[in-house]
Amino acid sequence: MAEAQAICLRNNIPFYSYRLPGSREVVFGAQLTNNIRLFKGFEKHRGEKGFIITPFNPASWSFPFFIQADLTFTDYLTDQEAIVNLRNTVFNTPGRIFTKQDCEHFEYLDELRTLIATLKREGMRKAVLSRTITIPCDSLRIAPVLFEQMRQYHHAFLFFAAIPGKCAWMGASPETFLKYDRNGFFSMSLAGTQPVSTAQNPPQWGEKDIEEQQIVTDYIQNTLKQFFTRHLETEGPITLQAGNVFHLCTFFRSDEQIPPDRIDELVTQLHPTPAVCGIPKKRAMQVITEIEKQERGYYAGYLGPLQATGAFDLFVNLRTMEVFDDALKLYVGGGITPLSDPETEWQETCQKADTLLNLIRQINYGKTTF
What we know:
This protein has helices at about 1-10, 80-85, 105-120, 140-150, 205-225, 260-270, 280-290, 340-365, and strands at about 15-20, 25-30, 35-40, 50-55, 65-70, 70-75, 125-135, 155-165, 165-175, 175-180, 185-195, 235-240, 245-255, 280, 300-305, 310-315, 320-325, 325-335. It is of the alpha+beta class. Strands 6-2-1-8-9-17-18-7-14 form a 9-stranded antiparallel β-sheet, with helices on both faces. A hairpin with a 3-residue loop joins strand 8 and strand 9. The radius of gyration is 20 Å and the shape is globular.
């Protein structure tokens, strides 16, 4: 798998690798043309197999892409002929060089204070603020090694997807956005955070975390109710571990089937949820754009495999890093409510970043600088 990823990075071939939560099998797919395809919705791509990656803000200059599965194999059945095929495929695509504009501690605290004041003034219930951590390094060499290390996170969705010249992202997401197969639909609301290291057994949740999770649950439930009128099962909230943090989580299931055009409608209404944006959605999106220093791009968008049957497994692009030719850029964020404490929120982003930083330390003799 690492060999195939390295060849694709070197030869500018669009590719994806993923492992579903709880599975041991890693799936690899590559597109053997450099014809960059936009993702135009589930109805338009009916009968196609590949991988979807979409931005946080549908109105941004980051476009939704579809990587078609011209060549696929799993790590259990690595196809040597496919490896030879990849070696013989080379595209000439401009590289992607990072620009560093990370938000340091006190700068982030200022952003948080501004956001909390805005929430109180406007009577908003929640908005999500994020920041980046950039690590200059030989990322094209390191990224395939990092992906291998991620396999220790058994309950996360592992992914590494790259469209040369456009975007490249890798991560271990704990959050299902929407899953669909012949059994029906599945989604979850994930919010509230506390470090595993300091949590009680069982973890005790404070008012801020409970309220934050309830906001997300209400939003997803109300959206799904419009589409699943016969049967919608809700379970939770329960405590879920993701790396070195706990979250509160509620599950939603329905065995109803809906046509592809209705699936497109559902996804449009559901994304982005208050777990990564805020409520009210439109105003939260504006506030995030005004306050955050960096462009989110595909961070907190959704991504995942699409099968020819129409089935898909979509996850929120969280616990994630953008892969440049000369750097890895980690993205971390947290849900902010009028009850939030700026320093606590900064610490939460540090704890979330550790999920990926610990992997970097493992391959770099305990250091996060290269």
